[in-house]
Write a structure and sequence with these properties.
The complex is a heterodimer of chains A (about 110) and B (about 110). With about 110 residues, chain A is an all-beta fold. Chain A is built from no helices and eleven strands. Classes of the chains: A mainly beta (about 110), B mainly beta (about 110).
Chain lengths: ~110, ~110
């Protein structure tokens, strides 16, 4: 069953602006991951945050996790046209072997 | 070097046919996956193998049969193709099983059933 729900479903910003995407989930998780998918390509892993972590950084990416609210956010700072893609959150629930992906969110960065 | 490769990239076929998609990873990973992405971009796990052992088998029609000849390869065979099978199929791999590790995705195979 679907776990994550990204919000907003689509976001259009200008180059240089920050982009924030949110993900909400329903059950307790072991970890939460963010992936990027460029048009016509496979998914690329961006960052993984474990359930006992609250914040993680990787380059221009900042991810937060609030397990009490069952939500995560992905912040991309100083966006570039090359950041234009769909972004997915994925969660591993409890003892499950699998990742469950959200519906994805389309980010468009205009040059 | 391509980490996870799939063939073919595009597959157009008629209803009722049988087709296969091949996947290979050169990352030395133990676990491989098949996902289906529908027209609305929703990505759903279908199968997962760990060291040639089937560990995830989601509720998919038994017309879909995965085969892992060795831990670097995971193929997907589909019998009696239906219109609803049209989608993009992604192969992925991870170093260990359990969903706690990043997954590396192939470029996808766009299957169109007419």
């Amino acid at each position: 069953s679907q776990q994550g729900e990204e919000d907003p479903q689509a976001l259009s910003i200008q180059e240089g602006e920050n982009a924030t995407m949110n993900c909400s989930y329903k059950t307790s998780i072991n970890n939460l991951q963010w992936y990027r998918q460029n048009s016509g390509r496979g998914l690329v892993h961006l960052i993984l945050i474990r359930s006992n972590e609250r914040e993680k950084h990787s380059g221009r990416l900042r991810v937060t996790l609030d397990t009490s609210k069952k939500s995560s956010s992905l912040l991309i700072t100083a966006s570039r046209a090359a950041d234009t893609a769909s972004y997915f959150c994925a969660t591993r629930q409890g003892g499950s072997e699998k990742l469950v992906f959200g519906k994805g969110m389309k980010l468009t960065v205009n040059p | 070097d391509t980490a996870v490769s799939q063939t073919p990239k595009y597959l157009v076929t008629q209803m009722g046919n049988d087709k296969s998609i091949k996947c290979e990873q050169n990352l030395g990973h133990d676990t491989m996956y098949w996902y289906k992405q529908d027209s609305k971009k929703f990505l759903k796990i279908m199968f997962s193998y760990n060291n040639k052992e089937l560990i995830i088998n989601e509720t998919v029609p038994n017309r879909f049969s995965p085969k892992s000849p060795d831990k670097a390869h995971l193929n997907l065979h589909i019998n009696s193709l239906e219109l609803g099978d049209s989608a993009v199929y992604f192969c992925a791999s991870s170093s260990f099983r359990g969903g706690s590790y990043e997954q590396y995705f192939g470029p996808g195979t766009r299957l169109t059933v007419t």
